[in-house]
Amino acid sequence: MSWTGDPSHANETGRFAAAQAAAAVESDMQHRRAARVVAGHSTDAEDCAEMLAMLGLAGRGEPVAR
């Protein structure tokens, strides 16, 4: 006996995955914007690194382009 599954369940799973991916992209964009603001208000590189670390934005991968 084979089970084909509920097609509406597969559709819901796909929509949920798409929503998660969109949320991850938006979160990444917000983190990049926040890092740019911090960099713009920092007195030097050490100050910037310290503030980014306090905000949990340090070590997130690529450097932020100005």
Brief write-up:
This protein has a domain at about 25-65. About 70% of the residues lie in helices and about 0% in strands.
What this model shows, in words?
- The protein is rod-shaped, with a radius of gyration of 20 Å.
- The longest helix is centred in the middle third of the chain and has 35 residues, at 7-41.
- The model has no long low-confidence stretch (mean pLDDT 84).
- It has helices at 7-41, 45-54.
- It has two helices and no strands.
- The protein has a domain at 27-66.
In helices, the fraction of residues equals 55-70%
SSE-based structural type = mainly alpha
- Residues in β-strands, percent: under 5%
Shape: rod-shaped
Number of helices: 2
Low-confidence stretches: none
| Mean pLDDT value | 84
Radius of gyration: 20 Å
The main sheet comes to: none
N→C terminal distance: 60 Å
* Topology as a string of helices (H) and strands (E): HH
Would you count the extended β strands for me? 0
